[in-house]
Design goal:
Alpha-Beta Plaits, globular, alpha+beta, 8-stranded antiparallel β-barrel
Length: 240
């Protein structure tokens, strides 16, 4: 099943066009190395929380947007080989000298998909989420995600993917574990829902919240008080 390299990145609002150009250049190289799809999305409806949120996760300032992004690979072996090549490719080193964002606060890590439904064709808006999964909740997370995905697709979603931390490093200033205030044996979950547009997404959520089948799926295997989430417009979507 799909392997995901997931990212949260703080980018100055004034650098939106420069960031997109930078990401587009990177995509040309990444697609050579085994990435099957690269998606960059720009924070448009990202709420502030009382304890955790995506702004805090990357220490975003008032003049920065939060980006939710991912690279897709067919498996971890392909991803690991690509990262080895990236570290030794002078083209990436050259790009790293002139980045339109503070990479020190970017969060990244590898996630193994547990549920993947739909194909994402025509995506214009994305709901992104990072979750503190209960310890030992691997099967429960997979089953819960698989139960809810058909409801999202029925209400207009194009694709629903849920993944579990597989290679998620600790960082000096920011990381995924701190983003959701991980406790004890908890693990990090990373996922998204793809929609044709924000309008479709907003309407769908109203209907989903009134759909009794959502509650019938049972209590989710994560701590909802510390999950972080937001709505993002698609800035770049490149496929191999």
């Amino acid at each position: 099943m799909t392997y995901v390299e997931g990212f949260l990145t703080p980018v100055p609002v004034a650098n939106r066009d420069a960031y997109r150009a930078h990401a587009d250049r990177a995509a040309d190289l990444l697609l050579e190395l085994g990435v099957t799809r690269m998606v960059e999305t720009w924070g448009e409806d990202v709420p502030h929380g009382t304890r955790t949120d995506m702004h805090r996760a990357v220490q975003a300032t008032a003049d920065e947007a939060v980006l939710f992004s991912w690279f897709e690979y067919p498996d971890r072996a392909t991803r690991d080989a690509a990262n080895d090549r990236i570290r030794n490719d002078p083209r990436f080193a050259a790009m790293g000298k002139d980045m339109p964002f503070d990479a020190r606060r970017m969060i990244y890590g590898g996630f193994a998909a547990v549920s993947d439904s739909g194909d994402g064709t025509g995506t214009g808006f994305v709901d992104g989420v990072v979750l503190p999964l209960h310890g030992g909740a691997g099967d429960a997370y997979r089953d819960h995600a698989a139960a809810l995905a058909p409801l999202f697709l029925e209400h207009g979603a194009l694709r629903v993917l849920d993944a579990r931390a597989d290679d998620v490093p600790a960082g000096e200033a920011t990381d995924f574990a701190r983003a959701v205030a991980i406790e004890g044996a908890e693990q990090v979950g990373f996922g998204w829902v793809e929609w044709p547009s924000r309008t479709v997404r907003d309407d769908a959520w109203n209907r989903l919240m009134a759909d009794g089948r959502m509650a019938a799926a049972g209590d989710p295997p994560w701590n909802g008080q510390r999950m972080i989430f937001g709505g993002f417009s698609v800035l770049l979507d490149r496929t191999a």
